[in-house]
Specification:
445 residues, mainly beta, 4-stranded antiparallel beta sheet, 2 helices
Amino acid sequence: MTLSFRLTGFCSTLMLVVAVGCGEKNPVKEISAAQSGVEVRDTLVDSADLPTLHWNQWRGGSIDGVVEDREVATNWGESQNVRWKLDVPGRGHGSPIVVGDVVYLATAINDKQQQLVLAYDRKTGDQRWRREVHAGQFPSQRSIHNKSTNANGTIACDGQRLYIGFLNNDKVMVSALGLDGEIVWQKEAGLFVSKFGYAVSPILYKSLVIVAADNMGGGYITAMDGQTGEIAWRVARGNISSYSSPTVANVGGRDQLLISGCDAVTSYDPATGKQLWRTECISEATCGTIVSTDNLLFASGGYPDKETVCLSAAGEILWSNRTKIYEPSMVLLGDELIGVSDDGVANCWSVTDGKQVWRKRLGGNFSASPIVCNDTVYVSDLSGNTHVFKSVDGEFQSIATNQVGTDCYASPAVADTEIYLRVGVGSGDDRTENLVCIKTASPAI
């Protein structure tokens, strides 16, 4: 996910930031890879015993929202091309993931103070199991933004275990569950002082589960062994509240753990946590996840400053502009970069020089991040519309606008020829959530 809430009203809390955020409340105890002795292993190997990892973490397996070309729907509605639709208890902004023949989802029920992981049958939508991960010890309501939830993160799965991080008892607690829903381990990644809530999704790198937790009490990134939960390394990141999930990408011929926020884009060695480089840019608070090519990377945000930036694999700024793509992450479409702003403006830039190819107002407001399939962009807005469009010969080309539900904070997942959407229905105290499976009824694009 992207962070699924905006920092509107941020200026009214600026004095609180100055008063509270000027020094660490919780000094971070750093742990080096050498100190931990945790071995980093290659675990994601082909095996007949492992289920297919269709869409196994935030923004898919490559953490960039790009889907291999396949036959997927471009048109749907409440009763059109819907395979099934089911009620989801509670509320959350984490995206669904799809592994094998099961859809997994994290959610939170506020009145009972329950944080849950749910499993549904892909074919029928029937619930397979429901597991309570935490009961009680929710953060105070005043420390959660009114657009946020207590289940903002997307689950990650390595084919053997499910991993999820929740803010609970003023800590980021990471849990591993078996595919049957049984809890394998639960570990504290670190303490967390919440200003607007915890928004980050865990990501996978070889045998590690990596979580970021930028917060005003003392931020950090922690890597844990997926099998045991033992901390492999932990690095401190200062005391600024920011909301981006990290990514791991091979850029410039080496694996890099990349994250924006805290007034910079920073690169780490994902196996050890060693900082590779840090480039000051964008702003103190960002929400989106970085996207990259083989030798370029792109980031945007934030608060209080705004900037979209292209950096080299070594962190050199190659081009930038004053556009802010805040909550939604961006996506690459061939040699073009697509970013949809919170207030509904789609931007298209050339990746090589940053030249704006086109700019189109979609209307509405956005929290969800776009995906790309068949050179076609899919992105949902906060009115439940999913906008489907292309970039053709330097121009914006609308394909369809499809509505299911009355809002959509979560980003879509794709498995085979199906799209999975988490949407809201209704408003206020009467709002509920649905998980929807969109089927294909037309030839491939």
